[in-house]
Amino acid sequence: MFKHQFLLDFPGAAGWHAFIQKYPDLKDTATDATEQQCYRSKNNDTQKKYYSGKKKLHTLKTQISVSMTGKIVDISDTYPGSIHDKSIIDQEKTLQKFPKRTCQRFDSGYQGILKENPDYYAIIPIKKPYKKELSPLFKEVNTSHSKRRIIVENVLSRLKKFKICKYTFRGRINTYRQTFRNISAILNFRLNNLATI
Hints:
The protein is of the alpha/beta class and 197 residues long. Helices cover 38% and strands 17% of the residues.
């Protein structure tokens, strides 16, 4: 969606400031995946593919990235419920869709992205060491991160106020992505037009 090549027009710290003034939604983002129940297929292979061990249901999974204003700036393809969130990040190349200086926030389910993408500004919670406690400083860092990342949870909650995104999806699986994108577009429209609605 947004490529870091845009930054070639804005070299250095002053250039980044100018870029962010033009595209404020790319300064800080939060990413998470959501699952929605779908019908159980009669085909055993398809059934296994869409079974989510986490939800104990057959589900469809979609990942979104949200700016700090609540605007949805990226939506993934639809994946079977058995696919791990980290696998979606890798397949979608989500980090690479944003400029390298964009702060991208994730939950603890995305372990490994920091090592695999050292050039990108990604933040995940600091894990508690085995049989030890986190220091007060690290706890404070995690709390601060959670407070900023909560925006993506809020947006997912808003999406699920629409019944078509909340209850069992009754349509064909290959139509789900477009349905999800349409509801996301409605949310973005409402956000952009709050003053006039």
